[in-house]
Amino acid sequence: MEFIWILFAFICGLSAKVISLPPSIGYLIAGFVLHFLGLEADASLTTLANLGITLMLFTIGLKLNIGDLTKSEVWQGALGHSTLWIVLCFAVIKLLAITGLAYFADLTTSSGLLVAFALSFSSTVCVVKLMEDHGEMRTRHGKLAIGILVMQDIVAVIFLVAATGKIPSYWAFGLVLAFVLKPLIYRLINTVGHGELIPLTGFFIALGAYELFELVKIKGDLGALLAGMFLAAHPKASEINKSLLNFKDLFLIGFFLLIGFTALPTLEMLGIALLICLMLPVKFVMFYLLFSALKLKARSAFLTSMVLTNFSEFGLIVSSISVQSGWLSKEWLVILALAVSISFVLTNVVYRFAEHLFMENKPKLIKYERSSRLEEDVFKQPCDAPIVVVGMGRVGMGAYNAIAQQVGKKVWGLDAERAKVDWLTTEHVQAFCGDAESRDFWETIDLDKLKLVMIAVPSVKDTINITHQLRLANYQGQIAAIARFDDEREQLEELGINKVFNFYHEAGVGFAEESLAMMSSQQEAKA
């Protein structure tokens, strides 16, 4: 990447952060400014952007349970919304065409349908970045949003196959050999250890899957996503994901810059893009009503709808192919790029107030809730267990085992991953599945029975979210949490958490105490 790109991306990203906006908005602005100054995107920036999207899809797959896609609220929500949106959006486009409005009047029936189809997607890049920034990737609404996006991505890939005429070759059937080779691939990952080979392994598998799918004439991004899902059950999946996070975020800067290089807009094009963005509230309402009909609770339906209310980078890919094929004018590519950029900004700004907006409108929103609940939203609280450990990873399990040795069944574990909870249950661990970052969850249990909540999640953002929801649910007991760094510890203590343990410091203290105890025992034995 040329230094001028880095300079503008840094300045605009930092400026956005200073005014409490996500840096990604700054990167979008940087792209438009650089284009206005006469610079052009070269092949290296395009390569960088493509790498970012490929790694993002791969890391999504690493955290995705294939069973999540089979849930009715996911596939029915995605396909149902896309169908309804295309019909409604096309009707609006034809109505605007009748009025003779610029650019709309030139759209034919087929090109109007293409525009509606391009606007039906929600942005994977925008949503994933937003969920990561808010620490909500593991929440009920976060996982639902990711499932919807994956279904939309699959639809987009099918369109690209049909539009480009790239029919998968017969060799594509050979991809099923991956399941035969799965033990060998898992053994290979176990062999790489925990050093610098971990991120390299992630790159190798993600890009290897991309090239393999391209070789058999299937969209490579789908290969990266499926490769991640293929490895999601491996014990090192989380470690690979963490090792790729910084690379992914860096490469995605190229994607945001590239949007600005699409074309220089006119004021008329900007006006049309703003007009299109007026349909975003309609997109939100359609999502919310559809999720409510699928028996989601009001808060989950509201937050999922809110984060999905934007237009997608896949819409730009669809429109770009349509322009190349002569189905759309190049002006529409600019208009859609502007609409996507504006929707990114609106989503990032509005979502900061999502919880406040929900509470303010809760009496109206809950009217659309169904009386019956999805099984995943029903929680049975363990009786007479006043201590809960939130997050059953290595630290959480260590805390659970230590407490269980002293108080027995008085402690229980809580985790957002169903597969992990099922495995823990087979190991006779009193573990339950639930979204600790949801106020709905805490409001469904008797908080008076809880005396101590131990938050053992790795992300400080997740810890803050959980604490915030506990306070809003009027929890009066004690809260303990872990932190990796002193500034995180201070931040959590200022939040009102009763006891914050520095992860590295406490590990060192425990190591020293156990070692001294071992030495004392040895000396006593000799005596």
Write the layout of secondary structure elements.
Blueprint: H1 3-18, H2 23-36, H3 43-62, H4 66-69, H5 72-98, H6 109-118, H7 124-133, H8 140-164, H9 177-180, H10 182-191, H11 197-215, H12 220-231, H13 237-260, H14 267-277, H15 280-293, H16 298-308, H17 313-324, H18 330-350, H19 354-365, E1 387-390, H20 394-407, E2 411-415, H21 418-426, E3 431-433, H22 439-443, E4 452-455, H23 460-472, E5 478-483, H24 486-495, E6 499-502, H25 503-526
Helix pairs in contact: 1-2, 2-13, 3-11, 3-12, 3-13, 5-6, 5-8, 5-15, 6-17, 7-8, 8-16, 8-17, 11-12, 11-13, 14-18, 15-16, 16-19, 17-18
Architecture overview:
- The protein is mostly helical and 527 residues long.
- The protein folds into two domains: 42-368, Up-down Bundle (Na+/H+ antiporter like fold), CATH 1.20.1530; 379-526, 3-Layer(aba) Sandwich (Rossmann fold), CATH 3.40.50.
- The protein has 25 helices and six strands.
- Helix 14 packs across helix 18 (330-350) and helix 15 runs antiparallel to helix 16 (298-308).
- The radius of gyration is 25 Å and the shape is globular.
